[in-house]
Every structure is written in C-alpha cells, then in structure tokens.
Amino acid sequence: MNSENTAIQMRKGILEYCILLIISRGEVYASDLLDELKAARMLVVEGTLYPLLNRLHRAGTLSYTWKESPSGPPRKYYSLTPPGRHFLDELTSTWNDIDSSIRLIMAQKTKNDEQNA
Q1: In the chain, what are the domain boundaries?
Q2: Helix ranges restricted to H, the chain
Q3: Is the dihedral of CA 106, 112, 115, 117 positive or negative?
Q4: How many whole angstroms separate alpha carbon 50 and alpha carbon 26?
Q5: Disulfide-capable partner of 37 in 3, 42, 60, 90 (CB 3.0 to 4.6 Å)?
Q6: Do the bridges between strand 62-69 and strand 28-29 make them parallel or antiparallel, or are there none, so unpaired?
C-alpha cells in the first residue's frame, strides 16, 4: 500500500473546508488563497482551486467582487455568504466530531501499545 496516495486523498477531502476557513477571515484573492494553502502543505494547484471556487460560488456559498489592481487587471476577491457561513459552521462541527473520534481511537491504540510492551 502507498501511504502517499492515502495522504493525498485525505488532503483533498478537507480542501473545501480549509478554503472556507481561510475565506471566513475576510475577502481573499485566489492567488493569496493558493499561497496560504501551499504554506500549510495542502498540495493544491490552480487547476483544482478555481473549479472548486466556481462550484462554491454556484452553490451560493461564496460571493465575489472585482477590485482594481495597481499592477494589472482587476482581481476577483472571494467572501463567504450568510449561507456559506452556516455551511462552514456545519463543517466545523463535523470536523470537531471527526477530530474527537480520531483522538479517542489514537488514545486507545497508545493504551494497547503500552499494555503490550
């Protein structure tokens, strides 16, 4: 088995949540979003990000505004809509449940490892 493939799939599974978390802090330009995701080791490329942003916009989760740029054409800045904020709250609840479950399972593994040592 290849753990790298599983790790990639895990990251892809939480990419939408990470994007919404970043945008929840305020308006975000897509390039800045990409930079922050890459800095967080969420391996993402433009070909993945833009279709996801478009899908979230079509779903009413995100809105965008065009702003003039001092160094080129206008830029599209994304922000959460009220339904998007509600959706993020639901995902955060789900994330917290998953995190709690994983921590319980890991604690049990540690306990079993200590008993078998």
Answers
A1: 3-116
A2: 3-23, 30-39, 46-58, 82-116
A3: negative
A4: 18
A5: 42
A6: unpaired
| For residues 19-48, average pLDDT | 92
66 strand-pairing partners = 76
Measured at the CA of 69, the angle between CA 67 and CA 72, to 5 degrees, comes to 130
Half-sphere exposure of 23 (CA within 13 A, CB side): 29
- Domain 3-116, classified CATH 3.30.450.40, yes or no: no
What is the pLDDT averaged over residues 31-56? 92
State residue 1's pLDDT score: 76
Write down the pTM of the prediction.
0.85
- Res 13: pLDDT: 85
